[in-house]
Amino acid sequence: MEAESLQTVFDSAFSGINQAREAFTPQLRPREIGTITSIATGIAKVSGLPGVGFDEVLKFPGDIYGIAFNVDADEIGVVLLGDYWHLHAGDEVERRGHVVDVPVGDGLIGRIINPMGRPLDGKGPVVSRTRLPVERPAPPIMDRAPVAVPLQTGIKVIDALIPVGRGQRELILGDRQTGKTAIALDTILNQRDQNVLCVYCAIGQRASGVAKVIAALRENGALEYTVVVVTEGNDPPGLAYMAPYAATSIAEHFMEQGRDVLVVYDDLTHHARAYRELSLLLRRPPGREAFPGDIFYIHSRLLERATHLRAKLGGGSLTALPIIETEAQDISAYIPTNLISITDGQIYLSPSLFELGVLPAVDVGKSVSRVGGKAQRAAYRAVAGDLKLAYAQFEELETFSRFGARLDEDTRKIIEHGRRIRACLKQPEFAPVSVPAQIAVLLALTARLFDGVPLEQMADAEKAVREAAADIPDGVTARFDSADKLSDEDRKNIIAIAREALERFIPEPDEIGLEAGSKAALTEKE
Fold first, then answer.
1. Considering 176, 283, 370, 504, which one is annotated as catalytic?
2. Considering 342, 376, 410, which residue would you say is the last residue of a domain?
3. Is 93 helix (H, G, I), strand (E, B) or coil?
4. Which of 51, 75, 98 is the last residue in one of the domains?
5. Are residues 120 and 191 in the same domain?
6. In this structure, is residue 231 part of a structural domain?
7. Are residues 251 and 261 in contact, defined by beta-carbon separation less than 8 angstroms?
8. Which among 35, 263, 348, 439 could bridge 199 via Cys, Cβ 3.0 to 4.6 Å?
9. For position 482, which CATH number holds?
10. Within 10 A of 125 (CB to CB), how many other CB atoms are there?
């Protein structure tokens, strides 16, 4: 009985194999194979492959990929996306039949990857069901909505005087070592519990600098809602060129799901240099500063993808903070002027303010936000206009007073008030300030409550007002997040809380007289 059942099993198995063999028809699949004719730094020249298209992925020996960048009649200029030291002239090259793409999705949140989507954090492969091309057309005008919601950076000087909205492109520029990355990092840290995902894209940075940024994100719990895309300085220029486009595709996937995303490009100076290097190696004609003629276009098509989608498409937004490094404070150089004309405003960091210890070193006079003011909360708008005017007057008069001119009482008051504005706008790194605390400090400034506080005590006085902001009634703080303007009663309540917090910092009249008398005595002796 057992032998018969075994025979039946074998018969059914063999009959199934026969049916499969008869049904199988071999198919010939043509493959295009080319040959490397020459290798240079980060590029290869390839012959053959007559059907290759622009931006198509090509596979080289050793699992190395490249992008078809120059498609000429007799050869192809390929940008290599990996270590190419083992490649030689005569090696075979194979078409992949698709453009370069990157994995996207929730599996990338909290991960550190390269622009190809390969993990760099040692946590295993990236889990993703979807891939998107790194180069995608920007959303059409009809799919966009006005920028209407603020993106709070947690930095007082920016949120009050140079506000950024969700869907805006705000350039951060300044000389090296002036705190550009610090502003972008503070903005990422402030998005905690704000329902904003972040993508930090490091382009050609030193490995030590990238490690510091990742450590800061991890220590402050920001890596939980951030994707980090990294190319280091020793990576091939092709990866540095591709990095911001890959980061934008990752961010766009979240935006199309109706989520708010912040993407930081650190920095596009290295991106432009990588593209210049590739273009010169591929014998493209150089233009101004040896950059190719389409250098403006590579950044405009990148930043044009940042937008706020209309409600029917989910209402998601993509806010871009590109960073640019200037040389000797020259913001009228080629790449900075390109980016200034593409973006919706700029935050300029001044080396002279940095040297004076004014951190963040934002030069309010040269900084502007062309869009964010529309999205700024009404509570900020009520105080920010007066503050910006008073600060601008102070900067002009401070320059004038350095010549040793005698100052009248009104001028002296403007300068003293301006010094206190500057002191209040100072802020340490990785210490974002909440909206109620910012509005309490700004209202106290406009009400001139700080004018009686000695300059050396300003840091403690400002901290006391921020801590006192916790006593603001919930009904008032609820209006901070809405479009409602602050009523006179709300202002009085906030100013009363701030005045009470500052009482211990304002010296008694006797102390002021005693101090003035001692100064006069010293002057007579001299």
1. 370
2. 376
3. strand
4. 98
5. yes
6. yes
7. yes
8. 263
9. 1.20.150
10. 10
Give Cβ neighbours of residue 281 (< 8 Å, ≥ 6 apart).
Answer: 40, 41, 42, 43
What the block records as the tokens of 54 is 């622009």
Among candidates 180, 155, 187, 161, which has minimal Cα distance to 395? 161
Residue with tokens 């993990």: 119
What is the full per-residue pLDDT of the chain (526 aa) written as tens digits? 466 677 888 888 888 888 888 887 777 777 889 999 999 999 999 998 989 999 999 999 999 999 999 999 899 999 999 999 999 999 999 999 899 999 999 999 999 999 999 999 999 999 999 999 999 999 999 999 999 999 999 999 999 999 999 999 999 999 999 999 999 999 999 999 999 999 999 999 999 999 999 999 999 999 999 999 999 999 999 999 999 999 999 999 999 999 999 999 998 999 999 999 999 999 999 999 999 999 999 999 999 999 999 999 999 999 999 999 999 999 999 999 999 999 999 999 999 999 999 999 999 999 999 987 888 888 888 788 788 888 888 988 887 777 766 778 888 899 999 999 999 999 999 999 999 999 999 999 999 999 999 999 999 999 999 999 998 888 888 888 777 788 889 889 999 999 999 999 988 765 544 444 444 443 333 4
Same domain, 85 and 113: no
Taking only Cα atoms into account, the Rg of the chain, rounded to an integer number of angstroms, comes to: 30
User: Does 281 share its domain with 347?
Assistant: yes
In a domain, 178, yes or no: yes
Residue 420 lies in a domain: no
Could you tell me the CA-to-CA distances from 428 to 201, 286, 361 in Å, in that order? 23, 43, 11
Handedness of CA 108, 109, 115, 120 (dihedral sign): negative
Same domain, 85 and 213: no
Among 76, 36, 74, smallest CA distance to 53 is for 76
Sheet (strand 260-266) strand order: 112-113, 226-232, 196-205, 260-266, 317-325, 171-174, 345-349, 368-369
Same domain, yes or no, for 436 and 321? no
Which pTM value belongs to this model?
0.90
> Is residue 119 located within the same domain as residue 133?
yes
Q: Is 370 a catalytic residue?
A: yes
Domain ranges, residue 308: 103-376
With respect to residue 269, please indicate whether it lies within any of the assigned structural domains. yes
Task: Give yes or no: residues 158 and 275 share one domain.
Answer: yes
- 369 and 448 inside one domain: no
Phi then psi dihedrals of residue 177, to 5 deg: 60, 45
